[in-house]
Amino acid sequence: MNIRSLAAALAASVTLSFGAAQATDLEVTHWWTSGGEAAAVAELAKAFNATGNKWVDGAIAGSGGTARPIMVSRITGGDPMGATQFNHGRQAEELVQAGLMQNLDEVAAKGKWAEIVRPAGLLKSCTIDGHIYCAPVNIHSWQWLWLSNDAFKKAGVDVPKNWDEFVKAGPALEKAGIIPLAVGGQPWQSAGAFDVLMVAIAGKDTFYKVFKDKDAKVAAGPEIAKVFKAADDARRLSKGSNVQDWNQATNLVITGKAGGQIMGDWAQGEFAVAGKVAGKDYTCLPGLGVNPIISTGGDAFYFPKLKDPEKQKAQMALAETLLAPTTQVAFNLKKGSLPVRGDVDLAAANDCMKKGLDILAKGNVIESTDQLLSADSQKQKEDLFAQFFADPSMTPEAAQKKFADIISKAD
To answer: Domains (ranges, CATH) in the chain?
Structure first.
């Protein structure tokens, strides 16, 4: 079935499923506020509005680190929204355990989520004590190096094919007045870059020994020392970025003011809004061109318990809509992420998205650190790398020692 036929079929099913229901406003909170993100979330709103209900946008400016405490405070404080974004993993674990979140078992069974959501670990991350509490909407992978083709042309060097070539090209970029590596000031950016370097340099097994097994000995060992050496290179190459938000750092690459950025595939949305073409204007290196692997984290929507029965119906309508085939296609093409459904047609995907789909099909995947670490452990890791990137006097050895201590106490 082609996308046009699928859209018609979905429209008919939406009318049948929700047409008789009373139209209801539903506030949805999220932190998608950049240009590419806003374009993507508009697709979700359009799909939900087509059910006869109304998406009331509750965007919170800033990163997830800014938005999540606000979302949690509202839910625990008795002022819940209709639905809220979190990342796949353990960010809503305590809210579920406190009995504040609605389970989606009925919708999930009706939509056969267990059969269509791929990889299965995404639905597992939504499952607590045998019940499903979130609707996964995408697969976002951190393991990408985005490169400005124009920047390297200006510097007179070939576009790198891997991290080592990128590091070697740093002096030529600097001589041309170009920042080699764009890194924003938000703590999660530097922490995420380190995680990407770990998979590329130390490999999947070491990544899991550190973040899944919480092996502090490995975290303090020679393989991770190599990763900290690479992080030190990244710190040096990022000197002069002087931006805060991740999309500002992405814009440095889009405009050729920076050579590259280690960032998740959500950066693609910014390139798309700017009219840039993958393979022509910019190059993407999954796994930094060293180890082609992607993480299977991403975004999911949770549904706080509400007393109004009509809003409860609207919540279930939204959950069903988020996993609908055409919603998955429209949203993820704009977001730059991969769909969670394994049965949708993505013929319109660009070169970079096709690389991600190929890696996913081969099974070269890892769980994200959001799935492996508690929110508190993640925060400690982010604080460490924010300090490391901001303070050149902190040696890689000192930073690794602090990192191993965090892992030794991680949960």
So the answer is: 3-140+297-360 (3.40.190.10), 144-295+365-409 (3.40.190.10)
